[in-house]
Amino acid sequence: YFCNKVFQKINLAIKNNKIQHLIFSSTAAVYKSSKHNLAENSTLKPNNIYGKTKLICEKNIIQTLKKTNTN
Q1: Verdict on whether the full-model pTM lies above 0.85
Q2: What are the residues whose beta carbons fall under 8 Å from the beta carbon of 27, sequence distance 6 or more?
Q3: What are the b/e assignments for 16-47, b being 16+ CB within 10 Å?
Q4: Residue 15 has pLDDT above 80, yes or no
């Protein structure tokens, strides 16, 4: 619920061109558990609700940014 409300406001701000650049801090929780070092191209497979919601939010932001030419 919280994530949904926050991203509704972020998406609205992006669409209204009030945000030109956005930095979204991610977490290793979005990746599949591994004993090895993770990289940005590691397999995405969150194993808890925190990682799942962060991944959903990241995808939502990426889709919105692509639609509005925001960095």
Answers
A1: no
A2: 50, 51, 54
A3: eeebeeeeeeeeebbbeeeeeeeeeeeeeebe
A4: no
